[in-house]
Description:
Layout: E1 4-7, E2 10-13, E3 18-24, E4 33-39, E5 46-51, E6 58-60, E7 68-73, E8 78-83, E9 92-99, H1 102-106, E10 113-114, E11 118-123
Parallel strand pairs: 2-11
Antiparallel strand pairs: 1-3, 3-8, 4-5, 4-9, 5-6, 7-8, 9-10, 9-11
Amino acid sequence: QVELVESGGGLVQAGSSLRLSCADSGSTFAGYGRGWFRQAPGKGREFVAAIDRTGRNTLYSDAMKGRVTISRDAARNTVSLQMNSLKPEDTAVYYCAVGATASTLAAMRGIRYWGQGTQVTVSS
Length: 124
């Protein structure tokens, strides 16, 4: 069964850090790009970060560039998102996704699979 399992969300104070992880339990998406997106209450889903299948190319949204780092562990079929200096406006459900490349993920085109999401809440 194809499944992306996210973890690492929670409630933190402004200025804190969190590390989100997304495991590909079936080793199904090793040859695909992977990305993170978020959706705040009452807003649409937006791109956060993406990484290509090799792990060498990454893309970030302007809103989070400099505060987040995406990485992938090929041996564990896991993609992580390290988030630093979190702000209350970063509060959202964060989703991992699978797509062809980092560029197509950043454009939110051709997304093949979504995770179930993990809640991140940043208090002021």
